[in-house]
Design goal:
Strand content: 5-15%
Largest sheet: 8 strands, parallel, barrel
CATH class: Alpha Beta
CATH topology: TIM Barrel
Structural class: alpha/beta
Distance between the termini: 44 Å
Order of helices and strands: EEEHEHEHEHEHEHHEHHHEHH
Shape: globular
Number of helices: 12
Length: about 325
């Protein structure tokens, strides 16, 4: 099935329905040669967006992606690449969203990725110690200088995004275009409820992460934590604890029931979970993470499942999940 392309919110940029990210995988599970192979498979399948961040493997993830892009030689006008700013180091000037760190992080990301500009640049988390106006002005400067084309946020509240947008309009600079929130069958509130007004009011786009809930929605953790999984990595003990706590065990019970729905459709649970994310018109792109080429190919094939998600199938899924967000209050 041909790749589907969706507008990034109200902007004119069209991004592939599936994109490829590097969180956890690049450096920790994916070396240079495998990165080249994965990115080529994704690109050949129509993926035109590659996601990264200064915090991923302390910048080494961006270096790997930069070397892969150089080796592959994709035309620069055929793909988009992103970075995120917040966690650049341990020193006070290397963290947060101050004008200085936003400026330094952008230039460092361009060097590591070996590109002349960033297509997308995200504020990786809200910074409660820096005035939003300072961050908005800094992002506006980077856009004006041609070093960033679109800027956005990641895991900001709706109020924070709306405030940043209003400040940008009042200053006459480019407002945030997109948000990168976690979104999957087990984590729905922000995308399906909190941001509802923003889609219509400011045309917010979303580049969602963790569509498989860090692998939970593949069924791989139903019988425990495999040694070669990301939950077994030393730096991700916090994620392992979430899977094994009481709420995590409840989610694994739901995953077992979702597996039967996937079997009835003659597909994998991973494909079902990915197609479920794509069913939402609020999702601009679903970021995939893969440590194996075969895994990436299988996930990309989930696009073929989308037309088969009938009303009946979706209702069965909702019954199992039992977590549909309440609609926002109206006054």
């Amino acid at each position: 099935m041909d790749m589907e392309y969706r507008r990034l919110g109200r902007s004119g940029l069209k991004v592939s329905a599936f994109s490829l990210g590097s969180w956890v995988t690049f450096h920790y599970q994916v070396d240079d040669s495998l990165a080249v192979e994965c990115m080529k498979v994704a690109y050949d399948a129509g993926v035109n967006f590659f996601d990264n961040a200064e915090a991923y493997a302390q910048g080494r993830s961006e270096e790997i992606m930069g070397r892969a892009l150089k080796k592959l030689g994709f035309p620069r006008d055929s793909y988009c690449v992103s970075s995120k700013v917040f966690w650049g180091g341990d020193l006070p000037t290397q963290r947060g969203l101050s004008r200085k760190h936003v400026h330094d992080a952008c230039h460092a990301a361009m060097r590591r990725l070996d590109v002349d500009y960033l297509d997308l640049f995200f504020c990786h988390r809200p910074d409660h110690e820096t005035p939003i106006e300072e961050t908005v002005r800094a992002m506006g400067d980077l856009v004006r200088q041609g070093k960033v084309l679109y800027w956005g946020t990641s895991e900001w509240s709706a109020d924070q995004i709306a405030r940043a947008h209003g400040i940008a309009i009042s200053l006459g600079v480019d407002p945030p275009t997109m948000e990168q929130p976690q979104y999957n069958m087990l984590h729905r509130e922000r995308v399906e409820r909190e941001y509802l007004q923003l889609y219509d009011d400011i045309g917010l786009g979303t580049t969602i992460w963790s569509p498989l809930a860090s692998g939970i929605l593949t069924g791989k953790y139903n019988q425990g934590v495999p040694d070669d999984s990301r939950l077994a990595l030393p730096d991700y003990q916090w994620l392992r604890d979430q899977v094994l706590d009481e709420k995590g065990r409840e989610n694994l019970e739901k995953v077992g029931r979702l597996q039967r729905v996937a079997e009835e459709l003659d597909t994998s649970l991973a494909k079902l979970a990915l197609a479920w994310c794509l069913r939402s018109t609020r999702v601009s792109t679903v970021i995939l993470g893969a440590s194996k080429v075969d895994q990436l190919r299988e996930n990309l094939d989930a696009l073929e499942l989308l037309p088969r998600l009938s009303t009946e199938v979706l209702e069965s899924i909702e019954t199992i999940l039992d977590n549909t967000p309440e609609p926002p209050a109206t006054y």
